[in-house]
Amino acid sequence: MADFKVVTADYVKVQISTSKNDLGDVEKRFPKDITILQLKEKLELMTGGSCSTMQLQAFNKDNQLVCNLTNDEALLGSYPIDDGMRIHVVDSFLIRNELDFGDVEKLEISDEQYSQKSNTVRAFLMRNKMGKYNEENQSKKEQQIQEEQDLADKITVGSRCKVTVSSAPTRLGTVMYSGFVDELNGHFVGVKYDEPLGKHNGSIKGKQYFNCEDKYGGFVKPQNVICGEFPEQDYDLNEEI
Question: Tell me, what's the pLDDT at 161?
Fold first, then answer.
C-alpha cells in the first residue's frame, strides 16, 4: 500500500447522501486514518450497495464539488474533507437509471408494488430504521430546520456581521440576504464579505439572490452569523508592495 498521510484532524463528521435520496440527512463520524475502500465498506451497510461499484464525491457546505474520492488505497484524511461537508454515494449497483442499457426494455413498477418488495433499498432502510425512516432523526431534522428558520428570521438585511465557520478564518461582512435558498434546500444567510474570501457574486446555480463583486459573496448557515457593530475594514487591496 502506498504511504498516504492524514493531514487533518483524526475524525471528521460528514453528511451522507445517495443519488436516490433514500437516506435523507444522515450524519456520520469517521476516523480519517481509514482507507477509501474501508469507508466504502462502511457505507455498504448504510446504503445496501456494493463497494465494488461505489463512487464517492465530496461536497462543501455550499454544495460545491470539492473532489472525487477515487483512490481506494488512499486514507480519508489525505483528501480535503472537513466537518460539515457531504459525501455523496453514486452506486451503479443500486441506481439503474445511471447505467446505459441501450435498447433493453426497462421494467417499470408502481410505487405501491415497489413498497411491497422485501429486497429493495427502501425495505433495507425501513428494517434498519435508517435515514428518513428513523423517526428520531426526522424529528431532530425538523427541529433543526425550524431553529435555522427562526435564526434566519431574526437576521436583518443590511446588518454588519461576523461569520465564523469551522476550518475557515473569521470573516467580516454585510448581510445581503436571509431566508430559504432553494438550490441549497435550507435557510441560509447571504453575506457580502469585506475581503474577496467568498465563492461567488451573490448567485448560486444561476439564481441571483444578491449582488456583489465576484469572490465577495457567500452563503452560510444562520448559526454561523453574529450581527453587531463590526466596522468595515479598509484593506486597500490595490496597494502596491
Answer: 95
Coil, helix or strand at residue 133: helix
CA gap 66, 4 in Å, rounded: 19
Instruction: Spell out the domain ranges in the chain.
Output: 11-133, 154-227
Backbone φ and ψ for 223, nearest 5 degrees, come out as: -70, -10
Based on C-alpha coordinates, what's the Rg of the chain? 21
Say which CATH architecture domain 154-227 belongs to.
Answer: Roll (2.30)
Burial letters 11-36, b for 16+ CB under 10 A, else e = ebebbbbbebebbbbbeeebebebbb
Mean pLDDT (the chain) is 81
List of residues 6+ apart from 238 with CB closer than 8 A: none
Contact call for residues 96 and 121 (beta carbons, < 8 A): no
Strand, helix or coil at 182? helix
Evaluate whether 108 touches 63 at the Cβ level (below 8 Å): no
Q: Tell me how far apart the alpha carbons of residues 172 and 193 are, in angstroms, rounded to a whole number.
A: 6
Q: For cell 454588519, what's the residue?
A: 160
Backbone angles phi, psi at 73, to 5 degrees: -85, -15
Residues whose CB is less than 8 angstroms from the CB of residue 16 and which lie 6 or more positions away in sequence, other chains included? 23, 26, 27, 28, 43, 46, 86, 87, 89
Write the CATH number of the domain with boundaries 11-133. Answer: 3.10.20.90
Alpha-carbon distance of 113 to 147, in angstroms, equals 37
Banded pLDDT at 96 (limits 50, 70, 90): very low
